[in-house]
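User: Some background: our group keeps a shared notebook of sequences we're curious about, and every so often someone picks one and asks for a predicted structure to add to the entry. Today it's my turn. The entry only has the sequence so far, pasted here. Could you supply the structure so I can complete it?
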Amino acid sequence: MRERLLWITEHYPPRRGGMATSCARQVRELRRSGRWVEVVVLGAAAGETEARDNGCDRYVAPDQEDGLAANLLLTQLQPPYTGVVGFGASVAGYYAVTLGAWLGCPSVVLVRGNDLDRDWFHPARSGWLREALARASAIGAVTPQKVDRIRRLYPDKVVEWTPNAVDVARWALLPGDLRRREEIRGLLRADGAKVIGLFGELRAKKRIPWWLEAIRDRGLLDRIRLLVVGTVDLATAMILEDPAIAPRSLRLPFAGPEELPGLYRACDFVAIPSLFEGMPNVLLEAMACGVAPILSDAAIPLGEAGFVFPAGDREAAGEATERALAHEDWPELSATAERYVRETFSLERERETLLDLLRRAQG
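Assistant: Of course. Here's the predicted structure to add to the notebook entry:
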């Protein structure tokens, strides 16, 4: 029988953000490989179904009455399925293991980040998460750290590392990107200083004020310029506006994919000092553009492709940043970052890792 997957998620285009980007990419690559994938988007504004090559996208409106949407969904599905996937381990995972049991097929739950780091401790969501992980036929997690933590909680479960991917060819630089790079560096007056990029939703877990304290303690403020692309919380915004405690910075709103290569390449490094983390698309995209990261070990192993410090160790964060600034062969470092992400986080590897986890779930 042709492989037919039911894919449950709260994160899917046209919603924005890294989760939606990752979800759409994984579904697209599975469909391209010939699998039939029916996507169910929970909490969507429109309750309708759109046909796709090798599948369909079904948008489920929020409940008007407790349990109504879930039970209506059961009447609309198109079984049989060879597996059910929950992209996200809380609500989507709970739906996936429930529907898998009712439809008589194995379920896979994909842990992405906040679903374990935050929801495990959240009174309103932890029950969904615990039930999803306990009932899943197999579990995938986006970082090795999360794999280890889940295995310790559920030692009898199949738990595997299912990393994100990036299409390196998609991030090849065009002449316009290089012009944008020079424009940004000119605005930052970066001559003699290194530009460090901060991208995305810079929330509390990203620990930007904490990292700024680390580089200030190390006496690095004059050697750095910051390019901030995305949103920042109030505390971070106030610090960035004070030249006594933060480097010179340029703040830009969220940028679309067509703008990002030039913005990434305007940076010498990107910083991701998070206390806990999933596997940010920003990290892989920047490396695909040849930009090495300065990041905590909450994300992914990097070898020689970046500057890593233990999450929460402020002295080590400052030291890693100083090592990055002192690196003398930027072209070689850039080539190493691009090569590492191309060889380690390819679209093919992401797809085959997911399929292998599904095979293990099916027994």
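Suggested note for the entry: The CA atoms of residues 18 and 118 lie 17 Å apart. The two ends are 16 Å apart (CA to CA).
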